[in-house]
Amino acid sequence: MMSPAGFPVSPAPPRAALLTGVGRRRGIGAALARGLAADGFALALSSLDAYDRRVNGEPSDVTDLAEELRAEGTEVVLLDGDLADPAVPPRLVAEAHEQLGPLGALVMAHCESVDSSILDTTVESFDRHYAVNVRASWLLMKAFAEQVPLREEGAPAADGGAVIALTSDHTTHNLPYGATKGALDRLVLAGTHELADRGIRTNVVNPGPIDTGWMTDEVRDAGAAQTPGGELGGPGTVEDLVRFLLSERGRWIRGQLLLSNGGFATPAV
């Protein structure tokens, strides 16, 4: 295919996406799912009910989200599995590919996040954070890349799609979460260069503090006071950026860690 100017145009990536960490309809993952559905993606949504019950204190309602999206015409596949198990990430990609066809996007919104500090973090907890936040993300990226064909020598690079991960810079008293998110950043950003021969672009988004039901009024007010505009972002502010990065207009942004936090904790100059 050639552009009007005579330059080769890369074929568009498939319009199917695997989105991890979609457990609750009020969470960031659910907002991302709604946004990608509006943009025409078929969706494979992965979740872990046991995590939502253990950490968020409420069950997953991803089945309700799926029904909502299907009613609007979106093809939705529900996948489950504990990402701490190294067999699960490649299985999720394989099942998504089998049911939806080739994937054009991998959006990683999953995490293990349990508050603890330097002196009271257990080895078991640290290892689980690493397994979910880092190792699983690597294995998901690897499996996603392996389903994208290598370009032939001399051929223009096909658009192999995009990988986006959500990160955080919160570390104090949230040690294993913050430390493993730092490792996640480096892992995903390396993908833009290491996976260039498959036309895959990768970015990391740091949305700052987002209230998905965990904030008290005190926490919410304190966080808002640390932003220049005096307000916090919501799941929709994360959705807006991710949709842009996955769009044709956003495909030139590659290998970036993007702060989409309303200027949170940014000192006035």
TrEMBL record:
Pfam families: adh_short_C2. It comes from the Bacteria. Keywords: Oxidoreductase. Belongs to the short-chain dehydrogenases/reductases (SDR) family. This is SDR family oxidoreductase. It comes from Brachybacterium rhamnosum.
